Amino acid sequence: MKGRLKISMLSVVAMSVGAGLAVQNAHAQASGSVSVGVGWLHIMPQGQSGQTVVESVAGMPVNQAISGTGAHVGASDAASFEAEYYVTDHFGVAFLAGSPFTSDLIGNGTLSRYGVIGKAKPMAPVLEARYHFFAADARFRPYVALGVNYTWYSDTRLTNNDFVASSFGPGSSTRATLSTSWNPTVSLGATYAITKHWSAGFAVTYIPLTTTLTTYARTAAATEIVSKTKIRINPLITLLNVSYTF
Question: Where is the signal peptide (predicted)?
Fold first, then answer.
């Protein structure tokens, strides 16, 4: 009888410990939960620009391409913020944004000797729908996502005085703009639950992004020259972050 009682008590203890561990290991990425995270973005543009086209001089249409011209956008880094709401155990809606950062416009072709010819500060938040694989309590959960991005730019300017003087003449001044755009996004990522609430994540996002650089130059003789350059940025973006799930 005592032997049976001991076995029964051990069974109860084991079941209690097992239940406690199950609760302890139950992860929070389930329907109705919210994750917020911070991390690091590395933005790697994959595209190039077309040739610069002089649209007008002193208000008269020209529409002449300048052979050998071109540029590309350099890589950059930013801090990231992310929030995701789990509609179900598998489907989530996520918002991702980066801190303000500066992108360099680097000359190609005949402009390569100038190096960095301009700078801009892009903002490119992403709203995406995610499908998470595996059960809500799985430690490792890969996901795929499709979304939409809106990109705009501030503080766009040509910064290389030698380039400006060579292109428009000594004593010239310039101002520049980059066009805004809506773009689709596609992402592959995964999260790993460290504890019930804390997790680490990694993702790769691609955005087929194109913008147009419009330059308004005023020569020393007060002649205005308007030129445009179409730039395919097409960034591949990697994300590393840490998230807390409520």
Answer: 1-28
- Which domains occur in the chain, in start order? 29-245 (2.40.160.20)
* The residue to which tokens 């990231």 are assigned: 80
Give the count of beta carbons closer than 10 Å to the beta carbon of residue 147: 21
Edge-first strand listing for the sheet containing 173-178:
60-65, 53-57, 224-232, 210-218, 173-178
The tokens describing 84, both together, are 């995701």
Name the nearest CA neighbour of 200 among 242, 228, 144, 150.
Answer: 242
Per-residue model confidence as pLDDT tens digits over 65-119: 998 888 999 999 999 999 999 999 999 999 999 999 999 999 998 899 999 999 9
CB 8 within 8 A of CB 215: no
Residue 120 near residue 178 (C-beta atoms within 8 A): yes
